[in-house]
Amino acid sequence: MHIEMNQPILAKNDGIAAANRALFAEKGVFVLNILASPGSGKTSTILAIIEALRDEFNIAVIEGDIASKVDSEKIKAQGIPAVQVNTGGACHLDSDMIRRAVEVLNVDTLDLILLENVGNLVCPTDFDLGENAKMVILSVPEGDDKPLKYPGVFQASQAVVLNKVDAMSVFNFDEQAFRTSVRNLNPAAPIFPVSATTGQGIEDLAEWIGQGIRSVQ
Amino acid sequence: MHELGIMTGVVETVEQAARDAGAEKVLKVNLAVGVMTEALEDALFFAFDVLKENTLLAQAQLEVDMVQPKSVCNDCGTEFDHDRFHVLCPLCEGANTTLIAGRELKIESIEVDLPD
C-alpha cells in the first residue's frame, strides 16, 4: 500500500523555531543568528555592536559553545544579560536550546537578542532558530576563498561581515575576489568590512541592525 | 552533515506512519532532498542501513530524489534551473529571486505491507 506523506524531516526543530519566531514577533524583538568559524571574532563583534547600540536599545545575548562560560562572562562583564548554552558536543544551536534560553531572559524589555552560534561554518546553517536574520562573519586571516568552500552559510545569510580588516596587509587577502564570490552566491546581502577591536566599520553594521530592530517594533 | 540525525527522524516518523496504517512492514521510503541542503546521498544510505535494523523498516528500500535548485525571478517572472553558484536571473540578471526548489528535506511517500 502506498502512503503519501510529504512531511519535512526536520519538522521538530522547525516547529519550535516557528514558535520562537512568533514569540519574538509578538514582543517586537529583533533576533540575529551569528555564524562563523572559531576565532573569527563573533564575540568581539558582538561586544562592538553592544557598545554602538546599548544607549538606544535593550540588548541580550545567548551564547552557544560546546563547553565553558568564557563568552557569556565577557558579555556580562559589560552589564548586558547573557545566557550561556553548553551543547556538550552538538556542533550547532537548535531551536529548543533557544526556546529554553529565552525563558531565562526578560523578553518583554528587550529590543535585540544576539545569538552567538557554535563556531562552525557548516552545521548551523541547517538549523532554524526562529531568528529574523543570519549574519556570517569571515575574518581576514581565514582567507578570501572561504565563500567558495562554504557556499551554504554565505548563501543563507542576510548580512556578511568581513572582520579583522586592520590585518589585511599582513595576509594575502584579495578583497575584490572575496566580494565577487559572495555576490555570486548572495547578491542581496550587504557586506560590512570591520575591525571589531578598533571599531572601524562598526557604525554601518550597527545602523543595519538598528534598521532591523525598528522594522519589528 | 547530520545524515545520522536526519535518518533517525525519518525512521521514527515512518515507523509511526506505518503503525498508524496497521502495517507490519515497510517496503520502501521515498525521500526528496534538495541539492542545496548539502546532505550527502551516500551518507544518507549508510545511516539508513544502520538505523533501520530491528524496526518495521528492517527490509525497506530507500530511494532518494536529489532535487535540483530552481528559482523564480520576482522582477520579470522567469523560472529557471540553476546551481548554487549561479543565482541571478538568466533573462534580466536581477538578484530579486525566490528559491522554489532545491532546499527541501522531506519524506515524500512510503510503501507498506498490510497484513491479509
Structure description:
The complex is a heterodimer of chains A (217) and B (116). Chain A is of the alpha/beta class and 217 residues long. Chain A has one domain (26-215): Rossmann fold. In chain A, 37% of the residues lie in helices and 21% in strands. Chain A contains 8 helices and 8 strands. The mean pLDDT of chain A is 95. Chain B is an alpha+beta fold. Chain B has a single domain, classed as hypothetical protein PF0899 fold. Chain B has 2 helices and 6 strands. In chain B, helix 1 crosses helix 2. The model of chain B has no long low-confidence stretch (mean pLDDT 91). Classes of the chains: A alpha/beta (217), B alpha+beta (116). The interface between A and B is medium-sized, with 23 and 33 residues.
Q: What count of domains describes the coordinates of chain B?
A: 1
Q: How large a portion of the residues of chain B is in β-strands, by DSSP E?
A: 25-35%
Strand neighbour order, sheet with most strands of chain A:
4-3-5-2-6-7-8
What name does CATH use for the topology of chain B?
hypothetical protein PF0899 fold
Low-confidence stretches of chain A: none
Low-confidence parts of chain B: none
Query: Strand-and-helix sequence of chain A, N→C?
Result: EHEHEHEHEEHHEHEH
Largest interface: A-B, 23 and 33 residues
CATH architecture assignment name of chain A: 3-Layer(aba) Sandwich
Spatial extent as radius of gyration of chain A = 17 Å
Task: State the name of the first-level CATH class of chain B.
Answer: Alpha Beta
Q: How many helix segments of chain A?
A: 8
The residue-averaged pLDDT of chain B reads 91
Number of strands of chain A: 8
* Name of the CATH homologous superfamily of chain A: P-loop containing nucleotide triphosphate hydrolases
Mean pLDDT of chain A: 95
Q: What is the CATH architecture descriptor of chain B?
A: 2-Layer Sandwich
